[in-house]
Amino acid sequence: MAAAVARGWSGEFEGMLFSDSGSGKAKALADELSGEVASNEEIARRADLVVLAVKPGMLDEVAPDLRGAKEIVSVLAVVSLERLEAVFPDAEHVLRVMPNVGVEVRQGVLCVAGSASEEARGKLELLGHVVEIPDGDFDEATAIMGCAPAYLALAVEAIADAGAQAGFDPELARELVVETTAGTAELLRRKHPGDVRKAVTSPGGSTEAGLEALDREGAWLAFKAAVDASLERMRG
């Protein structure tokens, strides 16, 4: 997720600093985006905004090195705003953010809670649609918008593969489904999903047959089960 955020910000700022625990990912990302590898202490000292993107279990390990940071934006799943504020008591602003991978192309959704400067909020708005939510709603938001890109990608993959198995060119099938998905997303900004579905479904037509098959195979329940499973995992 840190890489997706960084790519979304590429070209917007004078420079970006990267750090990792020794995996080499920081250097690779710095090379890709013309950034710089630095220690956590140096990042806290030099950066206007520190994006915290470590495994939740490593928070206590990295926090002491970042105590000098003025503004913290955390993308750590399941770590509450209260916990973040306790760990970074000297920061002027602490913001909890749950973005999805669309931020890489500046079409993401970012749920936020906490305190942020106007400059930081402007930076986040470059990445997509920012929504303020209560800190207690982050698990549900994550299950809906954080995990959903994977579910939607699976649906696109399945539809395109079915077309290819029916004899259609595989690459063209994927292109058609991807572009259809993009157009449908724009339409769904204006209309209720049920209305879109009804507009496409002629009585006795091929879409109706497809929807009946999806119903028989339990598609609706399968998506609900995916959200429920994600919530169960996050809640331990």
Structural commentary:
This protein is an alpha/beta fold and 236 residues long. It has 2 domains: 2-132, Rossmann fold; 148-234, ProC C-terminal domain-like (ProC C-terminal domain-like fold, Orthogonal Bundle), CATH 1.10.3730.10. It is 53% helix and 13% strand. The strands form 2 sheets. A 5-stranded mixed sheet has the order 3-4-5-6-7, sandwiched between helices. Strands 1-2 form a two-stranded parallel ribbon. The model has no long low-confidence stretch (mean pLDDT 96).
Q: Major sheet: order of its strands?
A: 3-4-5-6-7
Number of domains: 2
The average pLDDT value, as a whole number, equals 96
Number of helices: 12
Give the assembly state of these chains.
single chain
CATH level 1 name of the largest domain: Alpha Beta
Short description:
It is built from twelve helices and seven strands. The chain has helices at residues 2-9, 25-33, 40-46, 59-62, 81-87, 118-125, 138-146, 148-165, 170-188, 193-200, 206-216, 219-234, and strands at 17-18, 36-37, 50-52, 71-74, 93-99, 108-114, 128-132. Helix 8 (148-165) packs across helix 9.
